[in-house]
Design brief:
Blueprint: H1 4-15, E1 18-24, E2 30-36, E3 38-40, E4 43-48, H2 53-60, E5 63-69, E6 79-89, H3 95-105, E7 120-133, E8 141-146, E9 154-156
Antiparallel strand pairs: 1-2, 1-5, 3-4, 4-7, 5-6, 6-7, 7-8, 8-9
């Protein structure tokens, strides 16, 4: 993952706090919510109530769209990600890595985790990603996809372009 665009993508993931996550309702309509997330490499994690609308949507259809936008003062500083992927519910043993990622990113969570909470932890497997960076020009974007040969790697299809 030494690729320049992958490095920039990981920086956005590390600096961001929240992402907008869109799941599909039973009638196919999108359902978008804001969730806090943590990441390890290109793996994104989020948690929610197991009975929530998004958890029910994901149990039926794992496809998601997600965006992360870093804070900015003016449009020339906009940076973010737009992603398509699939979510999976993490089993109890797998959830430990996600929990550690959350505690590293949001250390204030430790004070709220006195007892095990009933929370469903999900991993988002990124299939397609667009890296947006207006510092390189208005509408500058680079497009990538998950590598079929290397788990967690992103292959970038272009060298970035404006608008």
């Amino acid at each position: 993952m030494s690729d320049k665009f992958t490095s920039e993508m990981l920086t956005v993931m590390q600096l961001g706090q929240d992402m907008t996550l869109a799941t599909l309702l039973p009638d196919g309509a999108p359902h978008a919510v804001v969730v806090s997330y943590a990441s390890e490499g290109t793996r994104l994690y989020f948690g929610c109530d197991p009975g929530s609308c998004k958890a029910r949507n994901l149990a039926r259809d794992p496809r998601v769209a997600a965006t992360i936008t870093l804070p900015y003062g003016d449009w020339s500083q906009i940076r973010g990600l737009s992603m398509l992927g699939r979510c999976r519910l993490l089993a109890a043993g797998e959830a430990d890595a996600a929990k550690l990622s959350f505690l590293r990113k949001f250390n204030e969570l430790a004070q709220y985790v006195a007892e095990p909470a009933s929370i469903a932890l999900f991993e988002v497997a990124i299939e397609k990603v667009s890296l947006l960076d207006y510092r390189k020009g208005f509408g500058w974007v680079a497009h990538g996809r998950a590598s079929p040969e290397r788990a967690g790697a992103i292959e970038w299809g272009d060298q970035g372009q404006a608008g």
